[in-house]
Amino acid sequence: MAKYGLPEEIKFCKKCVMPNTRPSSSNEYKHTAAREHDFIKFDKEGVCSACRFNEAKENNQINWEEREKELLELLEKHRSSDGSYNVLVPGSGGKDSAYTAHILKYKYGMHPLTVTWSPHLYTDIGWKNFQNWIHIGGFDNYLFTPNGKIHRLITRNAFINLLHPFQPFILGQKTFAPKMAVKFNIPLIFYGDHPGEYGANISIHQKGFSSEIGDKGGSSGFSTNYLNPDEKPEEIFLGGKSIAEHIKEGVNYGDLKIYLPMDQRIIKENNIEFHYLSSYIKWVPQECYYYAVKHAGFEANPMRTEGTYSKYNSIDDKTDGYFYYTTYIKFGYGRATQDAAQEIRNHHITRDEGIALVKRFDGELPRRYFPEFLDYIGMTEKEFTEIVDSFRDPHLWKQENGEWKLKYKVS
């Protein structure tokens, strides 16, 4: 039996390089190291749902002029006359949030409040881009940094129990936005790219959401079934431990609550809407990058990002690379696969070029920030390796001459 609910038959998309082991959704608040996932869908022609989603943007399934009219109507409904904030844009100042906030403010005349859940460990370029977003792009911003002691504890536990060191960041990033929207009475939240662009099982015709669902990494979001997370602390897990366990071990519940989803009744009572700008404007990641460079002072990494060939995606956190590396261990695809698949869908590289890039860079262990990451989670390299190896599924991995090898590779 395959771990993590992996498909028994491993396939790769005929158009891009994504395997059918890519999760399309999960519930971060449940705990099981071998939990069942929903995976990206493949059609009868062997093409993944992300490719089909992107095709639909180009083959007249969407009338972009009509979509922009819908956007204008939506914004007009929420436009304020007293100078108050009328749209909330979560983000870090990366290319996507910089593009989204700038378009909404300077093209459509909205007054956005930007909100940021702090990375675990800022990179130099990440901090610079965040500052440029505010000071060059020109935005009001709330930066929230969670209790560092608790954040490290949950990160360590998430690595040990789930091989998912990014879990506390993802949870905080997703739950912070609606809490700030309620606090400032802003019923409209705008993200950048639609999760369907990356394989989430959501129709291209769905534009607004009553609550957050899905994400481009396939491992964010939370169940919209939760009403009040205070009611069943034994059923909600952080870092693979229930809230009840944390409390028994002496962790203050107040320090954990920031990670928990807001009571869905409050979201409904405040009529909070979640939208993706790419539902209304044709979204091309490279164009977002160039726009962010021009209008918000965004800068790419001066060197290639470890684990891939790109320089401008997810570069603000020193722990980013270990999220993608652990995804490679559990699901058999890494950061280069994600980047190549996206660029193939947007016609920036061919599939053959993508395959070559995946073979060269996928699964590379990030070394640049490795000592800092190990210190952050309180581990030796030996302990790190032992935990990583314990999560390798025999369905995906084999050993040859003492080295781990993937059984299935794109070709």
TrEMBL record:
Superkingdom of origin organism: Bacteria
GO molecular function: transferase activity
InterPro entries linked to this entry: N-acetyl_sugar_amidoTrfase
Keyword field: Transferase
Protein's UniProt name: N-acetyl sugar amidotransferase
Origin organism lineage: Bacteria, Candidatus Giovannoniibacteriota
